[in-house]
Amino acid sequence: MAAPVMPADPDLLAGNPKRRQKESIVKTVFAGAATTSLVISILIVGSLLWKAQSFVGDLISPPADALAETRDGMISLSNLWTEQWAPRFMQFDIKTLLVASVIVTVVAMAVAGPVGLGAAVYLSEYASPRVRRILKPILEVLAGIPSVVLGFFALRWIGPNIVQNLFDSAGNQSLLAAGLGVGLLTIPLVASISEDAMRSVPNALREASAGLGARKFTTSTRVVLPAAVSGLVAAFIVATSRAIGETMVVFLAAGGSGNSAQFTVNPLERGATMTAAMASQASGTDGTIVETAFNSLFFVGAVLFVITLTLNVIADRFVRRVRQQY
Questions:
Q1: Which residues have C-beta within 8 Å of that of residue 48, sequence separation ≥ 6?
Q2: In this structure, is residue 25 part of a structural domain?
Q3: Is 169 helix (H, G, I), strand (E, B) or coil?
């Protein structure tokens, strides 16, 4: 007859007390780091929204010092829809910045999307392991080029040698030149994330496609790309958010001043994006600007935050719907 099994001692299963104490300390440290990052994020967003709310409140009920700075003696919510962005004159036409940001982003993605995706397809499906080991690190190094360098490159080379040669009416600075510069900046981002997504597709799918007689191009476009669509969408959303939030390239190459920018839908003209307007106006804040105009920076930041948050939420839902796990 088998001996009865005695219940284990809970103290023995709990392990060494010193080890449990160390694990508790490590857990506390990591929990504190996570909580700190969360609190900092909440404080940043809270400060942004509070100042943005103060700006909107000033437009509804303007303070006396703001009234003294205007040309016509009054400001209101209608100042959010005028013909220019000129905070020092209480003109806060938000569509001026939104349209310029959209133009730059569309041009940037028109460049980064095809080029980055093509580079990803080559690295994932056509390049030999030796070539991939050489090109992939170079591509990732390109992603680390400071944006101010690309801004000067767009200002001194893209504008005069590409934009002006193609369009005689274009100036040295334009939204198109800024968009091309931002496109160069986001190509490595699209290529790197897309290549990682395509490399994660199981080789069994490629072998099955080849076994059915499909060519390499057909396998890449009809099998690998659809299987990696969730990662590709994530790459494009990340690149779009990066393009919308880019500052230095558009600050240098677009030519629009954050203190005064006229509304335009022509990419060959100068303009100011949301980030460039914030950088230009903040760098010129020397105490002479009224509180309402200063708070407009936070309002633009809040609009930019809402746009990027919306893009990420939409992308997350789409990725969850089409994601395939192998």
A1: 298, 301, 302, 305
A2: yes
A3: coil
- For residue 9, the model assigns a pLDDT of 56
Specify the DSSP class assigned to residue 116.
H
User: Does 166 lie in the same domain as 110?
Assistant: yes
CATH number for the domain harbouring residue 200: 1.10.3720.10
Per-residue pLDDT, averaged over 171-176, amounts to: 84
pLDDT band per the 50, 70, 90 thresholds, residue 114: very high
pLDDT, tens only, 2-18: 556 555 556 555 667 77
How many CB atoms lie under 10 A from the CB of residue 25?
10
Q: Are residue 268 and residue 173 in the same domain, yes or no?
A: yes
- Domain holding 30, by residue range, is 10-69
pTM: 0.81
Question: For residue 86, which phi and psi values (nearest 5 degrees)?
Answer: -140, 80
What's the total number of domains in the chain? 2
C-alpha span between 227 and 237 (Å, rounded): 18
Give, to the nearest 10 degrees, the angle between helix 291-322 and helix 274-283. 150
